[in-house]
Amino acid sequence: MVQSSDRYQSRGGQTSGIRRRQDPVVYPAALPPGEHALSEHQLAGYRRNGFVFLKNFFPEDEVALLLGEAQRMVADAALRQSEEAITEPGSDAVRSFFRVHQLSALYGRLAADARLLDIACQILGDEVYVHQSRLNLKPGFDGKEFYWHSDFETWHVEDGMPRMRAVSCIILLTENNEFNGPLMLIPGSHRHYVVCTGETPEDHYKSSLKQQDIGVPDHDSLSFLVAQGGIRAPKGPAGSVVFFDCNTMHGSGSNLSPFPRSNLFFVYNAVSNALQMPVCGLKPRPEFIATQQDFTPLRRETGPLKPVVR
Amino acid sequence: MVQSSDRYQSRGGQTSGIRRRQDPVVYPAALPPGEHALSEHQLAGYRRNGFVFLKNFFPEDEVALLLGEAQRMVADAALRQSEEAITEPGSDAVRSFFRVHQLSALYGRLAADARLLDIACQILGDEVYVHQSRLNLKPGFDGKEFYWHSDFETWHVEDGMPRMRAVSCIILLTENNEFNGPLMLIPGSHRHYVVCTGETPEDHYKSSLKQQDIGVPDHDSLSFLVAQGGIRAPKGPAGSVVFFDCNTMHGSGSNLSPFPRSNLFFVYNAVSNALQMPVCGLKPRPEFIATQQDFTPLRRETGPLKPVVR
């Protein structure tokens, strides 16, 4: 079901190609910027490139807490059996846990941390809620790749996110280096919308979260974007943070190194951009993948992260 | 069939682990070094790291010839059907052509080029012949990874190469960069021999050339080697060359970028190290993978590469 009024049609009979973005990247400020907002220089870089890399953002003791929590979750057999656990294609190894801001009190606290929230609100010019959260684990030796994609394309088509007014935040829990399959971004790609071909199948998420075949950009469009902006792979120690626009084309390679690559992924969506019905006409994806029940804005939490008493 | 006198036992009931190399890396010179031999400094680096990277080794016009020949071979439908053509797992795309120094007059001439031969003879302290040659193609967008391996382990077990007295030479036909799955090497790994578990199946090469599961080093050994020497991925323009020891642990990641990564691969073996019977007790691999018929030393060819008249 293609709605002709849809600014960001994709799949459902569309031919592949590139359209212009029809939304701002940085939204007008509704309120004065918070204490932890980006500098003008950083914000200009974000507007231009579609991402900003903040090296050594969290101090070591807080990073140790966050990594410890990830290790606890991976060791939790019941959690590995839950629907929130996505395994690698052809194996039982966990690739991602979803909804971690609700599964983990520590990660819930982190999602609302003023140091992150001030930036998300500054970029989106609105109050925000968590549209999706996940813990991504790319083990050493055989961590698998994520092919290039715009998250917004999927969120729009499969979740009914109306406009490009969301920002993703990745918190590195392990060092990202040249060899462990770091996040790769195409600078400037957020200003283009790559229309994808194909029809979304029912329950697409059950396979697409392991390996995506539908909603995948074509080679010509990717070549165009890379010719314009190149590829960048931010590298840095655990505790570094990347904010990137919901429409920035990104992916990551395989990890043959002995170094695991783990990160946390929070998607902040403007409350004014809350989900409507999926554009593809199918039933919405489950709540653990795309928040639909509760768009209450996050309340800013300040001070360092502390161990959660169990 | 494991021979107890074998210095480099592997598979066939062995448990995984690391043994010391029992052969020199750089052999005593039999003759004065040739005109194009490595400098003492370069040779010392090769001895220490197990490889040497020679940036911008061939001039642009010769590189263009070599790349054109690769494109001609890929476009040759009959050649793509030959046994020398190895396809990607699960696809018809060519991953490698073998025996290219005989399939292509230009590549045959290149294999004997004094600029390469002088270095191979200097390192091995002997005359040399081509044990194996191939053209490796890693296409953009979906080039697949090669997992870590020591070539010598396979050549010893499956081809009957007696000692570590061979050197591989890679000629970059396209730029190798951070994003197109460049060759990765573990410096210093050539001084260790990683014994692999498993039994070699009959006709192992038919699957192993696509994706190797037997003769694969274990995680603990790889972690040890990387902890000692780290990982290096030489990057540079087309025409650059890497020489690496037959026992240097290496691999390469996937290629998600739009940039194809193509290279030529010649293995020079000392004539005094010519093949015997495979250690695994199976029949030898085909001639196009491992030269067994003719160990005649290469004769040095000088002057620039020229187009081959067809």
Q: What profile does the largest beta sheet of chain A have?
A: 7 strands, antiparallel
Q: What is the CATH superfamily label of chain A?
A: q2cbj1_9rhob like domain
The figure for the number of domains of chain A is: 1
The chain pair forming the largest interface, with residue counts per chain, is: A-B, 24 and 23 residues
Which features does this protein show?
7-stranded antiparallel beta sheet; homodimer; 3-stranded antiparallel beta sheet; 310 residues; Jelly Rolls; 12 strands; 20% strand; alpha+beta; 9 helices
Tell me what you see in this structure:
- The structure is a homodimer of 310-residue chains.
- The mean pLDDT of chain A is 93.
- With 310 residues, the first copy, chain A, is an alpha+beta fold.
- Chain A has one domain: Sandwich (Jelly Rolls).
- The radius of gyration of chain A is 18 Å and the shape is globular.
- Chain A is 25% helix and 20% strand.
- Chain A has a 7-stranded antiparallel sheet with strand order 2-10-7-12-5-4-3.
- Chain A has 9 helices and 12 strands.
- In chain A, strand 3 and strand 4 form a beta hairpin.
- At the A-B interface, helix 9 of A face helix 9 of B.
Strand and helix map with partners:
Two copies of one chain form a homodimer.
Chain A: E1 17-20, H1 40-49, E2 51-54, H2 60-75, H3 77-80, E3 85-87, E4 94-98, H4 100-103, H5 105-111, H6 114-124, E5 128-138, E6 146-149, H7 151-159, E7 166-172, E8 183-185, E9 192-195, H8 205-208, H9 219-229, E10 241-245, E11 250-252, E12 261-270
Antiparallel strand pairs in A: 1-9, 2-10, 3-4, 4-5, 5-12, 6-11, 7-10, 7-12, 8-11
